[in-house]
User: Fold this.
Amino acid sequence: MKRVLPVLIALFVASTASAQAPGGSAAAPTPTNAPMAVPAADPGAGSAAQAGSAAPGSGSATNGNNQATSGSAAGSGAGSASAAAPKGPALKAWYDVQADKTVEEDGTFWMPKSVNLAADDSDMMFYAVLALSAFFFIAIAIAVVYLTVKYRHRPGHTAEPSAAHNDVLEITWTVIPTIICVFLFWYGWHSYIKVVTPPQKAVEIDVLAWRWNWQFTHENGVTDSDLHVPAGVPVRLVMTSKDVLHSFYVPAFRVKQDVVPRRYTYIWFDATKPGTYRLTCAEYCGTSHAQMACLDTDPVSGHCNRRAVVVVHKDLEEYQRYLNDKIQDQLNMAPEDLGKMLYDKKGCSSCHTIDGSTRVGPSWKSPDWGKDIAIVGGTVKMDENYVRESILYPAKKARPGYPNSMPSFEGQLKDKELTGLIAYIKSLKQ
Ligand SMILES: [Cu+2]
Assistant:
């Protein structure tokens, strides 16, 4: 009986420690996104307004939202003129302008503000456990110090025998913690059931993780490495991994779930407030885990300028507009520009540079296009066929001095995208 209280206290303390871990890491509301060249402007203002340094010849972009990548669209319109398309900063699509916004998560010292209707209870749970733990910790610490001083050994005092039994005391310290525990269990059980049971009607988005990127596939085939979702509507993610364990974690949603190769895991949420929120891989997945989903690596310092984020659109309508505009843009881009975009968005940039430095794989800077290059056990001509094969079946031909670690992109790239990547790599030749 006497052991009950200390054991319960230990349990409380342990549970707070583990409950604090996610809160702790989420505590500092530092924006993950460094301010971008594009100032965080009102997304409704249309994309043309944001690109202060609009490429010449992009005057057609004045119709705002629908005209996204006008710089490149102009190029593709002119057929083979894609090489002549303006190389300057292409106009950003309105949805990418939203994704580029600095993450703003207000909240307390402990946690960013919850913006998920489905997980509101978990905050209350966290604070309850924290408060209980703090209360018991302080009360016990004071008692220990007080009793130590009061009953310290000193001249003229003989030791008193301890009481062997005290009914009132024992019943009190059993009943009160039991009530607290039952309350915590009941409350936790309820919110857990809510968190793991998505409603029947939800927007479904497929999530594929690999080293080191996320890919979100929406119902109309749009793929993106930022997660765009509507506010006020339940969203269910069906997640799997191409290689190792990852973990999908959005602190502001209070959702964190392992993403496992060769099986599917699920989470759902109901975002309450439009905005841009952090998205993190919370499972160590290899050397560049910390760089996971970095969409813009600084070529000089190697630091990450922008990471993938969750963009919550203000309603279903705006989300649908994203789906429509994005699919149009993906279809209309000039191959080379599409390839350049995919280089970042598909995470090629985490292993291949375009400045000559070596990351995991060979740099794409001035490839020996059309010439023979060395592979293990011979040579191969660097051309469209070799690049295509390298992307779809990277293991077939190995480059000496590089690990055989490139993931296969078979089935993950549309023909157009593959052509785009090839065109982009080719465009880097001198
Ligand atoms: Cu990861």
Remarks:
- Confidence is low (pLDDT under 50) at residues 1-89.
- The domain at 351-427 is CATH 1.10.760.10 (Cytochrome Bc1 Complex; Chain D, domain 2).
- The radius of gyration is 28 Å.
- Residues 246, 281, 283, 285, 289, 292 surround copper (II) ion (CB under 6 Å).
